[in-house]
Q: What sequence folds into this?
């Protein structure tokens, strides 16, 4: 899972015009940039920030769904949910590795997450309150993530683009699995259908916010587009998501919680009501329902596990010393 | 019904332990272990499903795997007490896994030649998984036992805490289609001996062994686990999920 709304990236560079022009020529020729290639510092910094945010989103994203693993309502659902959350952990691992090729360590990135310096997708600061949220998260949140990530498969930075190919295949499976949970609930009892509608009501707007601010308000989009880190604008992807998702909601017999949503025949696209950007920024800045708990849970896991990591290191050193002595 | 009962004991062992391991997801000491512990849980719950499905068939009352998992209460659960022990720290979790895998790997090995083709089939898949659990958990016990001063103390504390519970692994399950549990003990002891020696761990003095799980006499922790696990099935009876 992932948010395209890159928060606070600094893409300033101080390289010579000649160097920047040569780099841009490579980008324009659709060449992939690889870890050992020369690259503008701004390009490197933007990618470290973006891939780091993406990795953190995967890891923090394990928590809302993790909240329901022990309460999944059947053995089949329990296995599928556990496997899904495990996939998210796997995505985090690829992404941290991709970021490491740019000269940052996983430990540094982890510290930045814990200190609040690094951000993650704000969608995960909303609570997962019912089983239907497992459906809504898969359907809407993974669905929104796929819109972003399919585009990232063609990102100019090679390791990131390649990591995205596998991630996309798995996310697409997650999206279908989420939708299938919704479908089962919507063809179930009255209580189950209400649960599904409630989940859609709560996750619809936060899912639209995942695409980030409107293009006119997105500070760093232009440079990222030029460097082909980003291929489509926030608004274009959001529109694509809405167009794909509204008919799916209709098929479920659910109501999208936007009274202003209407089909524009001329554009061949939906128009949506106003997004509450105050809420978006409030949650990004730390005042969502779950921000504090999410980060605290990550910190607890890290701190409670410190003795295990230290022991593994100490044991490995003992082994090496023993082999050297023999 | 000896076969049905033995299958339920085995299935409950796998589900309860798998459930415990799934509680780690997102909270492990490192990302690699988040993935590994989830894998363990997936293996165990997967095996539990096969065992429940077969138990339901043997019982012949039209119950499903989910009926057996979600609609029995704690007095009807027949798992051994070891697997319901709370996760504790990483040392406790790994030791519990190691004791279980050191039993199940040779158990499934023996079950490969069961005259019952369903059992032999389940064993064929499970034996490979258990060999991996045994190796992974065993390696962690060595790392922690022979790591830092703190990890060695925590590992030894886990050994003491779980000491009353390992013996029950060798009880229950008396039927022709499944291996004799008591006969697995020498193989289990051999695994423990090798790993403990490498991990510098001491085998504690004998204590009174806590049994009772096979008769549905559990500690208090199982009821709480089942309240979580069975919540939705109990809240909306008869719903399809």
A:
């Amino acid at each position: 899972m992932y948010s395209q709304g890159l928060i606070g990236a600094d893409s300033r560079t101080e390289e010579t015009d000649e160097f920047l022009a040569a780099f841009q020529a490579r980008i324009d020729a659709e060449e992939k940039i690889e870890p050992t290639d020369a690259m503008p510092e701004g390009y490197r910094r933007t990618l470290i920030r973006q891939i780091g945010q993406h990795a953190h989103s995967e890891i923090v994203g394990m928590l809302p769904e993790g909240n329901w693993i022990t309460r999944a309502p059947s053995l089949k659902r329990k296995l599928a949910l556990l496997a899904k959350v495990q996939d998210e952990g796997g995505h985090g691992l690829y992404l941290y590795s991709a970021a490491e090729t740019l000269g940052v360590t996983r430990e540094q990135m982890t510290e930045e997450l814990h200190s609040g310096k690094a951000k993650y997708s704000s969608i995960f600061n909303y609570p997962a309150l019912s089983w239907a949220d497992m459906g809504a998260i898969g359907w809407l949140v993974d669905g929104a993530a796929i819109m972003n990530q399919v585009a990232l498969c063609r990102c100019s930075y090679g390791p990131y683009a390649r990591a995205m190919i596998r991630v996309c295949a798995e996310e697409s499976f997650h999206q279908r699995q989420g939708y299938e949970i919704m479908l089962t609930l919507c063809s179930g009892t009255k209580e189950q259908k209400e649960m599904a509608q409630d989940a859609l009501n709560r996750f619809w707007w936060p899912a639209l916010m995942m695409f980030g601010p409107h293009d006119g308000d997105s500070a760093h989009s232009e440079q990222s587009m030029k460097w082909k880190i980003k291929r489509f604008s926030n608004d274009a992807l959001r529109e694509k998501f809405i167009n794909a998702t509204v008919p799916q909601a209709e098929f479920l017999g659910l109501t999208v919680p936007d009274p202003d949503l209407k089909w524009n025949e001329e554009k061949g696209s939906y128009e949506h009501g106003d997004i509450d950007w105050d809420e978006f920024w409030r949650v990004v800045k730390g005042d969502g329902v779950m921000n504090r708990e999410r980060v605290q849970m990550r910190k607890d896991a890290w701190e409670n596990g410190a003795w295990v990591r230290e022991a593994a290191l100490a044991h490995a050193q003992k082994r090496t010393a023993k082999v050297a002595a023999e | 019904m000896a076969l049905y009962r033995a299958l339920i004991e085995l299935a409950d062992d796998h589900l309860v332990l798998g459930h415990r391991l799934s509680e780690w997801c997102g909270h492990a000491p490192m990302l690699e272990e988040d993935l590994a512990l989830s894998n363990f849980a997936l293996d165990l719950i997967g095996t539990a499903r096969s065992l429940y499905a077969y138990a339901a068939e043997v019982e012949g009352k039209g119950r499903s795997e989910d009926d057996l998992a979600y609609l029995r209460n704690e007095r009807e659960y027949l798992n051994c007490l070891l697997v319901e022990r709370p996760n504790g720290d990483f040392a406790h979790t790994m030791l519990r896994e190691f004791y279980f895998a050191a039993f199940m790997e040779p158990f499934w090995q023996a079950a490969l030649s069961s005259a019952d083709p369903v059992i032999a089939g389940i064993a064929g898949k499970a034996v490979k998984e258990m060999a991996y659990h045994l190796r992974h958990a065993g390696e962690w016990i060595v790392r922690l036992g022979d790591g830092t001063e703190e990890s060695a103390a925590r590992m030894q504390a886990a050994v003491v805490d779980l000491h009353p519970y390992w013996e029950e692994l060798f009880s229950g399950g008396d039927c022709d289609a499944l291996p004799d549990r008591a006969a697995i003990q020498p193989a289990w002891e051999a695994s423990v001996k090798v790993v403990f020696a490498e991990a510098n761990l001491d085998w504690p003095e004998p204590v009174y062994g806590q049994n009772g799980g096979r008769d549905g006499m559990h500690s208090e922790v199982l009821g709480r686990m089942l309240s979580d696990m069975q919540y939705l099935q109990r809240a909306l009876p008869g719903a399809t999920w």
In short: The mean pLDDT of chain A is 94. Strands of chain A lie at 262-264, 269-271. Residues 22 and 97 of chain A are 27 Å apart (CA to CA).
